[in-house]
């Protein structure tokens, strides 16, 4: 029995998609099916599935070091909690705009490599460039005399090293745009080349690849020292390492992800919705005319991400401040750098900053634990789906997540329990990142996979905006209250 037959949410018929009331998507689907190379998708070996999903390792490693060190990096340079959610709009904005647009463009792409691989290749190059900007923000800021300003002990909500922070923001936006150029086609190529019966298995392997990449990135974040010879900070070292690992991770997909190129008949794809305006019209119509099955999956995916998103951005900061009782805006370094004459203030400042930095590294270890649990659970996830069904597995993961969220509210956690709690979130993260895409891949047929994968991702990024701004507001209020109590 196929996966779609087991899941009541998914219809075996493709009539819903065939009735989408606009020309370009229907004609693209006809071109795809009329291709001389169009055949039934054969079963793939585990090695082939691993090669198809390996490009997601680039995405996830980038996310791992970005989420682990992004917020602390900006906080250490004087950016307030009120501003940080606006900086992190890079991810949701690029996901909401870039990924659906890339989905449409890749659906129409007639490159000899196929529809998805050209975008994976270009996106990987752009990821490397974004990492280059981030890794050079501090040294370039030093050229403008901002090194001492960045380490000033003066507290306040305004950045103390404007040029460095500006470069960091630019690099973060480039990186997030590039990630979304890769992410949609990387998921779409799995849906394109893997048959319905293997979609759950393929997406579980994909989740495992993501988990291993996360694990590797966060373990590096935990055990790489704060100061690295030749590189300076661990932040700069990790992004420099990423510039090597990202091309290596997309290489198997580029070499082995053999696609069926669309035919060379241009008429149907340059119909009434050609050009850049047509691309945005297709994206808009895909939201308006979303199949019923897609809308259900998108709503559940939205709610899952709205709840989980703050954990991504604030876990390391939470452990640094609330668990380790550190302060990112206290100064670190030598007496000359501090320029403070009171020995008591010097000791207090260094202790709090050191505690925060150690908390960030422990937070990276916690995220590594999450990735490990996610990877291990992805290996048995298919078994639970076949045993209980998609609905029950998904619902149980949501209840489990809610229970874990209550624990730090009711109990003051030490570092060990904080790491364990964050690690257990990997079960939930594995489930809600695999099953929705497997469901959508079962609903879709052929040409429009890239577009609808982008639409599904759009529900994720809107949820991230909701979750991050809600969390950022409450963290700011809590931080202000804590500062008043300490005075």
Automatic annotation (TrEMBL):
CC terms in the record's Gene Ontology section: membrane
MF (Gene Ontology): sucrose:proton symporter activity
Subcellular location, record wording: Membrane
UniProt membrane topology term: Multi-pass membrane protein
UniProt signal peptide: none
Annotated keywords: Membrane, Transmembrane, Transmembrane helix, Transport
Record field: transmembrane: 49-69, 81-106, 118-137, 163-182, 203-225, 237-257, 362-381, 393-411, 418-444, 450-471
Domain of life of the source: Eukaryota
Any matching Pfam family: MFS_2
PANTHER family in the record: SOLUTE CARRIER FAMILY 45 MEMBER 3 ISOFORM X1, SUGAR TRANSPORTER
The name this protein goes by in its record: Sucrose transporter, GPH family isoform 2
Organism: Galdieria sulphuraria (Red alga)
Source species taxonomy: Eukaryota, Rhodophyta, Bangiophyceae, Galdieriales, Galdieriaceae
